[in-house]
TrEMBL record:
<dbReference type="InterPro" id="IPR050194">
    <property type="entry name" value="Glycosyltransferase_grp1"/>
</dbReference>
<dbReference type="GO" id="GO:0016757">
    <property type="term" value="F:glycosyltransferase activity"/>
</dbReference>
<dbReference type="InterPro" id="IPR001296">
    <property type="entry name" value="Glyco_trans_1"/>
</dbReference>
<protein>
    <submittedName>
        <fullName>Glycosyl transferase group 1 protein</fullName>
    </submittedName>
</protein>
<feature type="domain" description="Glycosyl transferase family 1">
    <location>
        <begin position="206"/>
        <end position="373"/>
    </location>
</feature>
<dbReference type="Pfam" id="PF00534">
    <property type="entry name" value="Glycos_transf_1"/>
</dbReference>
<keyword id="KW-0808">Transferase</keyword>
Length: 424
């Protein structure tokens, strides 16, 4: 008797990136999906790492798909994700009767490890995805890297399939023992439709934001968005803006976010003459408009496996400058040097300043903007949906399964053109 393929997801908490993915997967014929959340973080309060000004996300993260919040050992649903969380409900939920396959992201918490154990004991195919790269491993001590060399190949091969998210991520998976036949190229999901639709609907507000952030119509705005924490390397952004501004007074930096380093960031900015402003927290519904108001988006992190803000900026055509310590640059990755953006040597503010000055040329920005939208079109939400559908097809073929309807690849709608802004 034919039936839907039942995909289970074990996930830390609802996110603005994955909620739309679960919704889109749930729309696919022949596929039944249920998400088991280990906490309800971001549903009632903001991300604590973004500081006191952060608020709960103001976009819908949970409608349109089946989901359940699991209780921990205290019989309560955790309000924050935790490495030590154990959700006993997984034992009764993760069965062959309930699911044909399970997806999870990593082994970072105890519930994920329990999920992997239950899948192996009960013969449930396990699908995984993370954003690790060899560059992000550089943060670890020599002893830990030695332990990883022995442990990771065993752990990684507990998964039957891996969805890779980029060039460096695939190198990492292969380095730690994952065979090519287990890897299906996907991406980290971004709801590009929401971004382009928001931008298309509010051109006047984008102009108002530019007027608010710039000195005048000739200002070239470079944005930094995220947590103000050490690994995001915010002071390199500030120093580079100051250097670039000395050579081109149109250059101005805008920082969006919050976190532990906010006070020293404000102290450093106060030493300048308005070259950098700290705008603060912007919620999800408005983020597309602020990306569209920028001329260039910058990520200066010295550790950042695969920063999704880069893809968000590219969605609306804002070209990126990326630190080479981030894991999402490469020939077929998100940022392609001198094709849709620039990659600079992290730890050298002067190198970042040179990249910023190169982006002061309007034709260069326009060329990279157009290519950024094209590249994102290859890595949008539908790319990840199709990666899931490919893995499901392989599982079905291996197990001789049939479904009521055939799972077929989906395609995105054509992205809206970027709303023009008054840039020189």
């Amino acid at each position: 008797m034919s039936k839907d393929f039942k995909l289970g997801v074990v996930f830390t908490h609802p996110t603005q990136h994955h909620g739309p993915l679960w919704r889109k997967l749930s729309e696919q014929p022949g596929l039944s999906l249920k998400v088991l959340y280990l906490s309800d973080e971001n549903q009632s309060s903001g991300d604590s790492l973004l500081g006191e000004g952060a608020k709960a996300w103001d976009v819908d993260l949970t409608s349109g798909y089946s989901h359940e919040y699991l209780k921990d050992l205290s019989a309560k649903v955790p309000t924050k994700q935790s490495k030590t969380v154990i959700s006993p409900g997984l034992v009764s939920q993760l069965t062959r009767q309930n699911f044909d396959a399970i997806f999870m992201q990593s082994f970072v918490n105890y519930s994920y490890r329990l999920t992997a154990l239950l899948c192996k004991l009960r013969g449930i195919p396990l699908i995984m995805q993370n954003d690790a790269s060899m560059m992000s491993d550089a943060r670890y001590s020599r002893n830990r890297l030695i332990a990883m060399a022995f442990l990771y190949p065993w752990m990684n091969n507990l998964a039957d399939y891996w969805l890779s998210c980029g060039d460096h991520n695939e190198i990492h998976l292969r380095h730690y023992g994952v065979a090519d036949e287990k890897i299906v190229r996907g991406c980290h999901p971004i709801d590009g439709d929401r971004f382009t639709q928001t931008v298309a609907a509010h051109p006047e507000e984008i102009q108002q934001i530019r007027q608010e952030l710039g000195w005048d119509e000739n200002t070239i705005l470079y944005g930094f968005m995220g947590k103000y924490i050490e690994r995001k390397n915010p002071f390199e952004f500030i120093d580079a803006i100051a250097q670039a501004h000395q050579r081109d007074p149109r250059v101005r930096g805008v920082m969006f976010g919050g976190g532990d380093l906010e006070a020293p960031i404000n102290e450093r900015i106060a030493e300048l003459n308005g070259e950098v402003i700290n705008y603060g927290f912007v919620n999800q519904s408005k983020i597309p408009l602020y990306f569209a108001a920028l001329d260039v988006f910058v990520v200066s992190s010295w550790i950042d496996p695969h920063p999704l803000v880069v893809s968000e900026a590219m969605t609306v055509g804002t070209p990126p400058i990326l630190s080479d310590r981030c894991g999402n640059w490469g020939y077929s990755d998100t940022v392609r040097h001198r094709d849709n953006g620039l990659v600079y040597t992290c730890g050298k503010p002067a190198a970042l300043a040179e990249a910023m000055l190169e982006m002061t040329d309007a034709e260069t920005r326009l060329r990279y903007s157009d290519r950024s939208k094209e590249v994102f079109g290859e890595q949008d939400l539908y790319c990840e949906v199709n990666a899931f559908l490919e893995v499901i097809k392989r599982i079905k073929a291996k197990n001789g399964m049939t479904t009521a309807q055939t799972l077929t690849a989906v395609t995105s709608s054509k992205p809206a053109d970027r709303i023009p802004v008054n840039t020189p």
